[in-house]
Amino acid sequence: MAASPGSGSANPRKFSEKIALHTQRQAEETRAFEQLMTDLTLSRVQFQKLQQLRLTQYHGGSLPNVSQLRSSASEFQAERNSSPCVDGLRQ
């Protein structure tokens, strides 16, 4: 089977077109990937800023009275120790 005289010059043109299309698609995919990574990075930074803001927000109100907490805790402990055991086990 003999090759036609023009087929030798047609193949490089087809290959160069395929290469150009491949290069174009790769560039588009790279741009899309870079855009996605930029969006992800910005979202992550915004999330971290929101977390820091939540942690550093001042929640108004006064501090608890520590002496009342201690007396309440000791009363609770006394009630607990004087309560009957359940199934013979003290909690």
TrEMBL record:
Taxonomic placement: Eukaryota, Metazoa, Chordata, Craniata, Vertebrata
Domain Transducer of regulated CREB activity N-terminal: 11-64
Protein name in the entry: CREB regulated transcription coactivator 3
Keyword tRNA processing: no
InterPro entries on file: TORC, TORC_N
UniProt GO MF annotations: cAMP response element binding protein binding
Superkingdom of this protein's organism: Eukaryota
Source species: Pongo abelii
Entry keyword annotation includes Cytoplasm: yes
Keyword vocabulary terms for this entry: Activator, Cytoplasm, Nucleus, Phosphoprotein, Transcription, Transcription regulation
Subcellular location: Cytoplasm; Nucleus
A GO cellular component annotation in the UniProt record: nucleus
Gene Ontology BP term (one): protein homotetramerization
Similarity section: Belongs to the TORC family.
Gene that encodes it: CRTC3
Region (Disordered) residue spans: 66-91
Biased composition (Polar residues): 66-84
